[in-house]
Amino acid sequence: MVLQLTWPIPRLKSFHRLQIILQHLRMSKHTDSVHEVLLEKKGCAGIITMNRPKALNALNLPMIQQIYPQLKTWEADPETFLILIKGTGGKAFCAGGDIRAITDAGKAGGRLAQDFFREEYILNNAIGTCQKPYVALIDGITMGGGVGLSVHGHFRVATEKTLFAMPETAIGLFPDVGGGYFLPRLSGRIGYYLALTGFRLKGRDVQKAGIATHFVESEKCKIDQEKQFILDEHMEKINSMFSASSMEEIMQNLKKDGGPFALKQLETISKMSPTSLKMTFRQLQEGASMDLQDVLTMEYRLSQACMRGHDFYEGVRAVLIDKDQAPKWKPATLEEVTDEVLDSCFKSLGSNDLKL
């Protein structure tokens, strides 16, 4: 089963373009350059290569500040017909944003905690509104910021090595980079499921979920075995249990079901930041009827609420720094995350709001 998106996807018509994609997949494993992002023109194609393989091509502010102006230049160039983005190293397209740098800046009150999210979301919007065919080769780990560099473009090409996830609720954040736009537009309630649990999709399942538009073998040397979508047998339960008017109701649905699948999701969600869960649930609810620009404006407000709060720093400590996997969330329960707390997270920042 292939799940259907509710936003339009153009067809990749040209066989020549597919050949370009396969060629670049094979060339993406190694590069000797010291630059963190490579920008080059090859024939009619503008090529963006993220080049931090030891950091799994994690996205930082200098990379964003190089990619954005070049993207706009190629978009306006009558001799550029295709923009392609990929990662080096063979392990990751882009594993996310440079969370540690953002954490340090947020703790110190540095501007990076504002500038990174602002400029990242401006880039996400530029990708989403790009007038040229934009192709992301999501070969390898594609999470968080890497999703923002790919999912809003015309074409997302997955391979057998693709590993997709939006794991932000585990670190006191929320599925940003336009997650409030694309996740609720996936079939049924799968977007809510992916956002709240951080479930990982691999290989062809990324296409079947509607996140990738195409699938190719990275080496084009194996016979691809078509398999059932990994969540196929659970879709009825996902659509039922994650159809709720509140985060608390989802938890009640999972408890009421009591089956192995439901209890596993209950265990997973119970480890997440209660504030992040409620924030994410409302983000997807509201984002379902917003355009991408309004979603990114909303998400910038949420990002700054996370920078002002407790759970993001505690989540990063527990998962990425000390790695004890034992975060102490504040508040510790869903019930303690009041509507007033949530409202303050979604509140306008006035003159500091994101401007697109």
Structure summarized in a few sentences:
The chain is an alpha/beta fold. It contains 15 helices and ten strands.
Number of structural domains: 1
Task: For the largest sheet, list the strands in their spatial order.
Answer: 1-2-3-5-7-10
Query: What Rg do the Cα atoms give?
Result: 20 Å
Per DSSP E runs of 2 or more residues, the count of β-strands stands at 10
- The CATH architecture assignment turns out to be Alpha-Beta Complex
How can the largest sheet be summarized?
A: 6 strands, mixed
Per CATH, the superfamily is: 2-enoyl-CoA Hydratase, Chain A, domain 1
Estimated share of beta-strand residues: 5-15%
N- and C-termini, Cα separation: 37 Å
Helical content (DSSP H or I, runs of 4+) = 40-55%
| Order of secondary-structure elements | HEEHEEHHEEHEEHHEHEHHHHHHH
> Low-confidence stretches at least 5 residues in length (pLDDT < 50)?
1-9
CATH class, please? Alpha Beta
What's the CATH topology label?
2-enoyl-CoA Hydratase, Chain A, domain 1
Could you say which structural class the secondary elements and strand pairing correspond to?
A: alpha/beta
Shape: globular
InterPro entries: ClpP/crotonase-like_dom_sf, ECH_dom, HIBYL-CoA-H
Family: Belongs to the enoyl-CoA hydratase/isomerase family.
Pfam families: ECH_2
Enzyme class: hydrolase
